[in-house]
């Protein structure tokens, strides 16, 4: 049995991690590869952190394309080879004429969930403007959605399975910048990376809107380091790159902002 209470100590997404622990114990017992539901980035980060110190189990995550936010995890004993192809996914085209009634990510997700499907069975949704959208789901849902998803907003839609090569992935826009700060405090680095005042950033941090490596961080004085990822809901992400100390004992920090 896995050390359940140790694995659950301090986690935010306790129910999700507990389900993955159950699946991991099943994979140890049966020697099978078990596939989780889709995990959000914070859930995935917590699963990977919790399981990183275990030697008897291994995980591999995949969401259909390299930048996918929502991913499923394949879980297996460490003796069993794992690769992303074992993570079962299906890609769908949701085609319709949205020229006169444009639909957002929330509209497409709402229409899918309106058929009775739960969020954990749906991965990323890629909105294609007036042509509709593409969605990644668990394979068992393909026929169900072809039968039951008939409309998004006022627009009739047709659902067709597609290959993953047909996904219209938009590469995230990147902006490289350098800042020189007196410390590596979260409020200082994040305000430089997101281009907003330090007081506004401090308010966002205190309100719980800022995550470091997908973990909610409410301390403005939290010390970030090279390799950390800072995310703000609705505003994108900033990756902390190389950090150098100047002659005046200040920190010159390379930052990459993803929008």
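Sequence proposed for the structure above (259 residues):
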């Amino acid at each position: 049995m896995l050390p359940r209470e140790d694995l659950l100590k301090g986690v935010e997404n306790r129910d999700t991690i507990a389900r993955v622990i159950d699946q991991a114990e099943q994979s140890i017992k049966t020697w099978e590869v078990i596939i989780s539901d889709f995990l959000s980035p914070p859930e995935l980060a917590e699963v990977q952190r919790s399981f990183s110190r275990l030697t008897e189990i291994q995980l591999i995550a995949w969401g259909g394309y390299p930048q996918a936010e929502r991913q499923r995890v394949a879980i297996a004993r460490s003796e069993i080879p794992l690769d992303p192809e074992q993570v079962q996914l299906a890609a769908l085209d949701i085609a319709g004429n949205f020229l006169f009634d444009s639909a957002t990510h929330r509209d497409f997700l709402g229409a899918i969930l309106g058929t009775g499907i739960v969020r954990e069975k749906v991965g990323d949704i890629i909105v294609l403007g007036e042509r509709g959208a593409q969605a990644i789901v668990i394979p068992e849902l393909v026929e169900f959605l072809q039968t039951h998803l008939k409309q998004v907003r006022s627009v009739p839609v047709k659902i067709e399975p597609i290959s993953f090569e047909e996904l219209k992935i938009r590469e995230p826009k990147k902006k490289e910048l350098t800042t020189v700060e007196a410390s590596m405090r979260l409020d200082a680095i994040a305000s430089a990376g997101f281009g907003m005042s330090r007081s506004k950033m401090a308010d966002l941090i205190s309100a719980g809107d800022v995550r470091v490596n997908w973990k909610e961080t409410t301390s403005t004085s939290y010390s970030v380091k090279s390799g950390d990822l800072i995310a703000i809901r609705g505003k994108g992400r900033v990756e902390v790159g190389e950090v150098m100390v100047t002659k005046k004992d200040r920190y010159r920090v390379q930052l990459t902002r993803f929008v």
